[in-house]
Write the structure tokens for this entry.
Amino acid sequence: MLVAAAVCPCPPLLVPQIAAGAAPELDAARAACTDALGVLAAARPDRLVVVGPADDAGPAIYPQGTPGSFRGFGVGVDVRLGTRRGLGTEGTGHELPYGLAVGAWLLGRAGWADSPVEGVGVGEGLPAERCAAVGRDLAARPGRLALLVLGDASACRTLKAPGYLDERAAPFDAEVARALATADTAALTALDVSLSRELKASGRAPWQVLAGAAEDAGLAGALLYEDAPYGVGYVAAAWS
């Protein structure tokens, strides 16, 4: 049974060492993520599943302790899913995709030690109904489940955005923020796969996993952060 969910953006720029001198620009986003994780801890879950974007459609499972690294961004920051230690990743052969690595970093920053942690990666090619089915399966397992759901909204909000300016981006992001603020599972499930891909919204599949898990949970939503620095939509929310 799903008892709580935290929704956070997952740009590697959340890691201050990567953002360097621009790190203060995302302080509000980091604070919102911390608040969202606090809602998860307060729910006293038996297990936490971190759901985030992956390169392959998936779903791909990442057990507790799976390593991740931000060395590709030029910084010596390593993480492990569900542990506080940042350890080297050489020779592992199996690492967290960037979104789940950000989730592991957020958990480590918050000192998460409340329950076992598992990761699930879902990619832009996974159909909406399949995403929802993954969520239903997670929620149907025994015990109290919490989800940390990672993903960004559109990357097309400005001329300098990674996906350039697309007039569809702002309305898309507004609907995502509304759905996350109100725990509207039907609206999240209805997000268009093709449009989400065109707008480079990495959160579409993870949000639809959340929608499936929360279908019968009766959770209420709260929007904690919404902005588009660098032309990319970032949203943080908590469901409880």
